[in-house]
UniProtKB/TrEMBL annotation:
It comes from Sander lucioperca. Involved in vesicular recycling, probably as a RAB11B GTPase-activating protein. This is TBC1 domain family member 8B. Its main location: cytoplasm. Coiled coil: none annotated. It is found in: Cytoplasm, Cytosol.
């Protein structure tokens, strides 16, 4: 590898290098301790230096130096891991550089020429290199060490590396931590003690920052039940974030494909870089904070001051720019942020250069002034280009904006409509919220509740006049305070759309919902069947869903979403949530609100495994431990709260609270996200703390919580009793303790409002690893429980076998996005079908585990074995099929082992009839298959068909391959030759007995000659016994000319039983433990050498 020329003052510093070759201008050196004469104390010392110090010249065993005769200064220009690599560089220098150097007059010119040439070579390499790091030279050095030490496949992409200490017990090992796309690796070499660690990201159960008395700060990794600690990191937070992102990326790509969204930075595992991961993390945080569509990416960030008219001062913050949005968030604790869609910007004005300010004019006669922007001119031009505005300085927006003062004059309802994005949608199926239809407000009604409702509306209107209304409204603490107090019924739909970001989705996709409804109309799928079943279970007591109007709207929204997102389709709880959305939002708005909830605000909630809800339950448990220690002391097992709270998270408390109270919770959710649900959950437990502590079992605790939820009321709700869900019949019982929902929410914000959204997101990532791995472990235990009944392997052996099988499945997924194995993996299938191996994967793993080393991964025999054990002939082998084959070879009787080998050489058509190919199998097909397996009778040796001449010769060759390399190889070969000869003669005798009394004389010698020829061919040496004979002849069935003679399995078995050497060989026990350990080590190397 060519290196940037680096000056060295001493040619043989500390005598660590030995000169191999030299000439007038170049020196090729070998590092002591490597190659010939290496080892001993010198090798130990040099190896230790190579590990601890960060320099290629101290790591690579070979290097090339440049020098001139009249100078004592040397320059490193190349290094190499192997002698062959460095010799290639040396030869290139001899052929391309040496002749040119003679034309220069001075040493300075020679050195300058050599340095320029080497830099040019590195630049040429860099053009095709995918490494986009801050210091390419140091990264190249690290990549060299990474490839040398870990011997991973060449496709494995190194992302970054760090110097750190790895703790083995109480002893730290100083070395290097390497983070690649698929693996976490560590290497240390100190005074002869080598420590090498390779952990794939998909094996990690827990990843967290920890600290204790010994380790002030460290990163804890839990994998395969082992704890690993890394400390002494210069940039611990940066390292942890990169590790967290790589683990999350791996989990999404390999386990949770439903949630995996292709991103430009992460679409190809071969293209992932540290810079790309950091950009992706920032974009994800940006989208989450501002509730933007998943297509948006953070492009630019600028520090600035924003003039806020309601406070009459400039607030410090950051301008965040994406493809379609200009956003601002304060950094001074005022919790102020604003979102400006580019579609709403009508002009950008630049002020004088002294203030470095720009003013963004927005529809609705308002403007925002950003000051002290360092690169304000470029920012202004960028915004203009994205909005398609002319950059002419004479451009005036006076026709659109009456004044550029940052005040808000949006009292015009038409402007509000434009800002909210409620464009003309004459094609919409329903244009009114169901609450407006079924419970219109009576303007003349002046009862106390309606008066309070009017006061709330007035408070919000005042807020709108000060902070703006619509998509460009300022979000502040006051906004949250109004939300906590409760949103007026008339404004609920508008504000939900605004806070969730659904208003932007709808504005940028006009007509999308109407088209979806038309396309999905009349479709019949599993999702539509489930939707029809649940339609009348959605708020059945509400008048809106006792009529066809509400039911039809609910059907259209759910069916359209299932059509839009077939990966999610329809899940229970979506009907309850959508019902509430339809009460307060128009039908199209309810659809986009559902999109926002399912795809952004509650990620992974509504899928087959409800992973998102399980993750948030784990986050909830962490918060209980942190905030309610009294409860934790009494109830050490918090899994009870996980089971109880599942419906809280899935339905946002709608399923446990009366509808008039639940909508207040939904208000908070759309503003603060999952944080609001977590806070309320803590407040509920805190409110019932004493009762929960005194309860004796889980059933009593459930009763306490149910009674509490029944007692929650909304004293300010203007809804009539026909709409409210509160149980009137129980009022006399519950009158002594009624809890108002507004007070409960207010208490939740006061006590637990300090929970930060960033902490919740971090906790989500940390717990997602554990949740996914727990689900995977459940799958493994279920598979092992089924397979245990079929094989003689111990549970621990099956556990290790399953890990190898699953790892082999993933090995072909690591370096490509279009792996067939990724397509085959479907968590919704039966446990046994979730992980399956195709032929290439199977042959590689089977070659590592089969006991006799007779099966080369590329041999035809591998294909025969694969076809034999693929019971349903779908081109995939599951874990049960794989284990049953290995169990026969490891623990089967002599007869069963021989039967397995015998069946290998029979055409597949002779063994079984072909079943239907792989696909989505319905329940009836599974039941039929299960019944067939129960009724299946044990196969006897008499059921096996006879083997013809060609197949028998191939069978003999297979035996030779099995015996090759055995200590008794010669005796085994002789035994096989003896059995082969005996069988052929027996068949010849039998054939003669069945011949007619007067056969033609000419046929006798011919048949005899054929038998003798066959004996010789079957008795050939192993050199000619490769299993590469054509498989097509086997598939085609026996040739008519070969039907003259054949053998039954009984004949073969009886003949081989008479050879003690062969019987002894097949009955020899195999060390399964050792075999599994060797396979674990060799699995990656086999992939690397493929």
């Amino acid at each position: 590898m060519w290196l940037q020329p680096d000056e060295i003052l001493l040619k043989n510093a500390f005598k660590l290098w030995v000169t191999e070759e030299d000439n007038e201008y170049f020196v090729l050196q070998r590092r002591r301790g490597y190659g010939e004469g290496g080892g001993g104390l010198t090798g130990l010392l040099v190896g230790t230096l190579d590990t601890v110090l960060d320099s290629t010249s101290k790591v690579a065993p070979y290097r090339i130096l440049h020098h001139t005769p009249d100078s004592q200064v040397y320059w490193t220009i190349a290094c190499g891991v192997t002698k062959e690599e460095i010799v290639q560089h040396w030869d290139w220098l001899q052929q391309n550089i040496m002749r040119t150097l003679s034309v220069f007059d001075s040493s300075e010119d020679i050195t300058s020429f050599v340095q320029g040439k080497i830099r040019g070579l590195i630049a040429e390499e860099g053009k095709s290199s995918l490494v986009l790091e801050e210091d390419p030279e140091k990264f190249r050095e690290a990549l060299l060490r990474f490839e040398k030490w870990f011997e991973l496949p060449p496709k494995e992409k190194l992302v970054t590396y760090y110097s750190c200490s790895y703790w083995r017990g109480k002893v730290p090992c100083q070395g290097w931590l390497y983070l690649s796309t698929n693996f976490l690796c560590f290497y240390s070499y100190l005074l002869g003690a080598e420590v090498k660690l390779i952990i794939s990201w998909d094996e990690i159960w827990r990843l967290e920052k920890t600290s204790n008395v010994i380790l002030t700060e460290s990163i804890h990794v839990l994998a395969h039940g082992e704890d690993h600690y890394f400390s002494m990191l210069m940039h611990l937070n940066e390292t942890f974030v990169i590790m967290e992102q790589l683990a999350d990326y791996s989990i999404k790509r390999l386990f949770d494909k439903e949630a995996f969204q292709r991103e430009p930075a992460l679409s190809d595992p071969m293209q992932i870089t540290k810079r790309g991961l950091e950009a992706h993390a920032k974009s994800e945080q940006f989208r989450t904070f501002f509730r933007l569509p998943k297509e948006e990416n953070l492009l630019e960030v600028h520090e600035s001051f924003l003039w806020v008219p309601f406070s009459h001062f400039n607030t410090l913050g950051k301008i965040c720019l994406s493809e379609n949005y200009l956003c601002f968030a304060s950094q001074d604790g005022s919790q102020c942020h604003v979102i400006i869609p580019m579609r709403e910007v009508i002009n950008v004005e630049k002020s004088d250069s002294s203030s470095r300010a720009l003013t963004v004019c927005v529809r609705g006669k308002k403007a925002l002034r950003f000051a002290e922007v360092r690169d304000y001119q470029r920012l202004a031009n960028t915004i203009r280009s994205k909005c398609g505005i002319s950059a002419s300085p004479q451009h005036s927006a006076s026709s659109e904006v009456t004044c550029l003062n940052p005040c808000f004059l949006c009292d015009n309802p038409e402007d509000v409509t434009l800002m909210v994005g409620q464009k003309d949608s004459s094609k919409a199926v329903s244009t009114e919220a169901l609450m407006t239809v079924f419970h219109p407000q009576d303007v003349e009604n002046l009862d106390p509740k309606m008066l309070k409702e009017k006061m709330k509306e007035q408070s919000w209107n005042i807020h709108f006049s000060e902070y703006g209304r619509g998509t460009s409204m300022f979000f502040t603490r006051k906004t949250r305070d109004l939300i906590v107090r409760g949103v007026p019924e008339a404004l609920r739909g508008e504000l939900w759309m605004l806070f969730s970001g659904a208003v932007n989705d709808m504005a940028t996709h006009p007509g999308y919902y109407t088209d979806l409804v038309e396309q999905s109309l009349g479709t019949s799928t599993l999702a539509t069947d489930e939707i029809e079943r649940d339609l009348h279970r959605s708020l059945p007591e509400h008048p809106a869903f006792q009529s066809d109007t509400g039911i039809s709207a609910l059907r259209r929204v759910l069916t359209a979403y299932a059509y839009r997102n077939p990966k999610i389709g329809y899940c229970q709880a979506m009907n309850i949530l959508t019902s509430v959305l339809l009460l307060y939002a128009k039908e199209e708005e309810a659809f986009w609100l559902l999109v926002a909830v399912c795809e952004r605000m509650l990620p992974d909630y509504f899928n087959r495994r409800i992973i998102g809800a399980l993750v948030d339950q784990a986050v909830f448990e962490d918060l209980i431990r942190e905030n309610l220690p009294q409860l934790v002391e009494h109830m050490t097992d918090l899994s009870f709260f996980s089971s109880v709270s599942l419906s809280w998270f899935l339905t946002l408390f709608i399923s446990v609270l009366p509808i008039e109270s639940a909508v207040n919770v939904v208000d908070c959710f759309f503003y603060d996200g999952i944080k609001a649900i977590l806070q309320l959950g803590l407040a509920v437990l805190d409110y019932n703390m004493e009762a929960l502590i005194s309860c004796h079992d889980d059933a009593e605790a459930v009763t306490i919580l149910n009674k509490f939820f029944d007692s929650v009321t909304n004293k300010d709700s203007p809804l009539p009793p026909t709409v409210q869900q509160a149980s009137m019949s129980n009022n006399d019982k519950a009158s002594h303790f009624n809890v108002d929902i507004s007070e409960l929410i207010k208490e939740a914000y006061e006590k637990y409002g300090n929970i930060r959204s960033e902490e919740v997101e971090s906790s989500r990532k940390r717990n997602k690893l554990h949740v996914i791995q727990t689900l995977e472990d459940t799958t493994k235990q279920n598979v092992i429980r089924v397979v245990t009944q079929e094989v003689r392997f111990s549970a621990s052996h099956l556990d290790r076998l399953y890990n190898l099988f699953k790892r082999q499945h993933f090995l072909c997924c690591y370096w490509t996005m279009k792996s067939p194995a990724l397509l085959h993996h479907d968590p919704s299938l039966a446990y046994l079908e979730q992980y399956q191996l195709g032929f290439q994967q199977f042959s590689m793993l089977f070659s590592l585990l089969e006991p006799w080393a007779f099966c080369n991964p590329k041999s035809t025999l591998s294909l025969w074995i694969f076809r034999l054990i693929d019971e349903n002939q779908d081109g995939l082998v599951n874990f049960k099929e794989f284990c049953c084959a290995l169990d026969t070879l490891y623990s089967g009787s002599f007869t069963n082992k021989l039967k397995f080998l015998f069946k290998l050489h029979l055409p597949p058509g002779d063994l079984r009839t072909k079943l239907t190919g792989r696909g989505k199998v319905d329940l009836q097909a599974y039941l039929k298959q299960w019944q067939n397996e129960i009724l299946k009778k044990e196969e006897t040796i008499k059921d096996l068909p006879r083997i013809n001449q060609t197949q028998f010769i191939q069978f003999s060759k297979t035996l030779y391959n099995i015996f090759h390399g055995d200590p008794e190889e010669e005796s085994l070969y002789q035994a096989v030759a003896h059995v082969t000869s005996l069988l052929l003669r027996m068949e010849e005798v039998g054939r003669r007995l069945h011949e007619s009394s007067s056969p033609p004389e000419s046929t006798k010698p011919a048949n005899t000659a054929a038998a003798e020829s066959s004996t010789q061919e079957a008795s050939t040496t192993p050199e000619n016994s490769d299993t590469s004979s054509s498989f097509n002849s086997q598939d085609a069935g026996p040739d008519l000319t070969e039907l003259d003679w054949s053998f039954s399995f009984e004949q073969v078995l009886a003949s081989l039983l008479n050879e003690p050497t062969i019987v002894r060989f097949f009955e020899r026990p195999v060390d399964i433990q050792t075999k599994l350990g060797q396979a674990r080590v060799a699995q990656l190397k086999l992939k690397a050498n493929k």
